Amino acid sequence: MIAQIEQTMYQLSDFFMAPVLCLIALLFIYSLFATGQFFSQTMQRRRHYKSFLQLLNSKLGSNQTLKLNGYPMATLANEVPNISQDQLDVAALKELEGVRNVSRLAPMLGLIATMIPMGPALKSLADGNIQGISENLIVAFSAVIFGLIIASITFWIASIKKRWMVEELVAIMPLLNHHPVNKQQTTENSTTAESALPIQALEKDYEAA
Fold first, then answer.
1. Which residues of 37-58 are buried (b: 16+ CB within 10 A; e: fewer)?
2. Fewer C-beta neighbours within 10 Å, C or N terminus of the chain?
3. Do residues 66 and 175 touch, judged by C-beta distance below 8 A?
């Protein structure tokens, strides 16, 4: 009975090898796309920095023609002036969701793709098949290398984007606090909202996720 279970698990693990390798290849392509998108956003932020400063010196929604490409939180706040801080926090987390998830999934997939060929490699070692050992180890090491490369790229992008989101939220916070809609709130709620820094909320949500 135990032998049948072991044989079934061995066959199933070998079956997962192809899908895992395909996923690693797709994530590598995604990491290249995310890198290009990141550098494009960097150029956009430099190009429209003056527009961002102009938004900070005005009221949200007063100038819908401002070009805020590269500033997703500022763009959202300008398009929806009544937006709350919690909604902006959720939008920031959604903006980081792709690269953050890939940076965590890639090493796990790389480890899976490393461990699967180890079974056939050990079997080849027992049979004295040196060529079988080398073939399986090549696949194993290549998979983990790609996984770590993907994770490194996306983690770097996620870290810098996280800082961008926090900077935008901190800059937009005074505009949200002084928006006319917020005047209808009680003094206690206003004091609580002012004391809750978006950088703290975003970092807690980011670490918890």
1. ebeebeeebeebeebbeebeee
2. N
3. no
Q: 10 Å Cβ neighbour count for 20? A: 19
φ/ψ region of 83 (left if φ > 0, alpha if ψ in -120 to 50, else beta) reads beta
Q: Are 77 and 175 in contact (CB under 8 A)?
A: yes
Burial readout 112-142 (b: 16 or more C-beta within 10 A, e: otherwise): bbbebbeebbeebeeeeeeebbeebbebbeb
**Residue 194: pLDDT band with limits 50, 70, 90:** very low
Return the amino acid letter for 209. A
Query: In this predicted model, what pLDDT tens digit does every residue of 154-182 receive, in sequence order?
Result: 999 999 999 999 999 998 888 886 554 44
pTM score of the predicted model: 0.76
Give residue for tokens 């996984």. Answer: 147
Q: DSSP letter string over 39-104?
A: HHHHHHHHHTHHHHHHHHTS-TTS-TT---TT-HHHHHHHH-TT--HHHHHHHHHHHHHHHHHHHH
Task: Read off the tokens for 115.
Answer: 């461990």
At 43 the pLDDT is 95
As a whole-number percent, the residues of the chain with pLDDT over 90 amount to 36
Q: Do the Cβ atoms of 97 and 78 come closer than 8 Å?
A: no
Instruction: Record the tokens describing residue 175, joined without a space.
Output: 């505009």
